[in-house]
Amino acid sequence: MRTVLSVLSNRWALLGGVLASALLTGTVWWLGQFLSVELGPDRGAPWYYWQLSEPTFRTRASAWLGYAAHQVVSWALIYYAQTRVRRYIDGPVNVVALAANAAFVALHVVQTQVFYDGLAQDVSIFSSQGSVVLLLVVVLLMENRRRGLVLGRPAPLGAEVVAFARRYHGYLFSWAAVYTFWYHPMEATSGHLVGFFYTFLLMVQGSLFLTRAHTNRWWTLTLELLVAVHGTLVAVTNSGPDGLWPMFLFGFLGVFVLTQMHGLGLSRSVRGLFAAAYAEAVLVVYAGRGLGRVDEVMRIPLIEYLLVAVVALLIWAGLRIVRVLRTAGRANAPSR
After folding, report:
1. Are residues 286 and 247 in contact, defined by beta-carbon separation less than 8 angstroms?
2. 128-158 in b/e burial notation, b at 16+ Cβ within 10 A?
């Protein structure tokens, strides 16, 4: 009976999180109609357009102080859960985490209306995009043993490396979501709204640590796939229908076909249908764009898989250095 109630509770938590995220996104859209600020000139693709032309100390401080407070609270709650709760159970700490994220969302709404600028004034757009990419890469690393990395086959990643990523991924994912959230002012463009909705869902996921909802594989897959929607929409908005939107759409869906769908318990025939539909869609789109450009669809998968290897190597090297230092410390310790 308790198991049934727990399942129902987790499903209601996820449903409530999605509805709350949609409501918050609608609020951002509504309040965005009241924004009237003077922005600087558009300097091209590497430039983030939505920032004040004449920032001040107060506008900068409002974003950085809000971000720092949000980040510290998020990390403190994760640390508390890992050191005090330490087991999968729906508890007050999850309610506190949800309430804290909601409070900081409200703070950022007010901060945008009063000061406008986010962190974008001082850091590159690539840092915001890279934080989300790093999040997705670490998910691939953590799920390697369960669903494999390519066509269900796991990559030769050490158990110690994967265990480290699983234990400490919450801190990285919290940073990725909170940093990206405070990077942008709460504008009401289509790209911003989809991005904020996605970020709100990531905050819901981060608030449900140590619950069964947090590990629901359909829910986590949805979070992974939403980046395809966001990336494609932003590419279309920025560059039009002739831009690089297929690279984002088919790139992220390619990761689904190569990796993510193999962890869902689907039959071989169903996975074959997904792969065939994907290949047909690629051929249809690139028949019009030129088959010579079809290599675009492999750029994102290749980057993500390469980054999995790089991140795994960095974790392994870090663990080795710590082990060597500990061994040297014990060897040099004075004997009693």
Report:
1. no
2. beebbbbbbbbbbbbbbeebbbeeeeeeebe
Nearest Cα neighbor of 161 from 182, 142, 174, 176 is 142
The encoded tokens of residue 197 equal: 């909705």
Q: Per-residue pLDDT tens for 38-89?
A: 887 877 767 888 999 889 999 999 999 999 999 999 999 999 988 888 666 6
> Cα separation of 133 and 299, whole Å?
13
Q: What is the pTM of this model?
A: 0.89
- What is the residue-wise DSSP string for 51-111? SBSS--HHHHHHHHHHHHHHHHHHHHHHHHIIIII-S----HHHHHHHHHHHHHHHHHHHH
Report the alpha-carbon distance of residue 183 to residue 238 in Å, rounded.
Answer: 18
Evaluate whether 198 touches 191 at the Cβ level (below 8 Å).
no
Report the candidate in 166, 177, 112, 140 with the shortest Cα–Cα distance to residue 256. 140
Q: What's the CA gap between 186 and 68, in Å, rounded?
A: 17
Spatial separation of the C-alpha atoms in residues 182 and 304, rounded to whole Å: 25
CA pair distance 123, 67, nearest whole angstrom = 13
What's the pLDDT tens digit per position in 147-191? 999 999 999 998 999 999 999 999 999 999 999 999 999 999 988
Q: What is the pLDDT of residue 8?
A: 41
CB 210 within 8 A of CB 85: yes
Answer whether 173's CB lies under 8 Å from 136's CB. no
* Cβ neighbourhood burial of 326 (10 Å; 0-12, 13-18, 19+): exposed
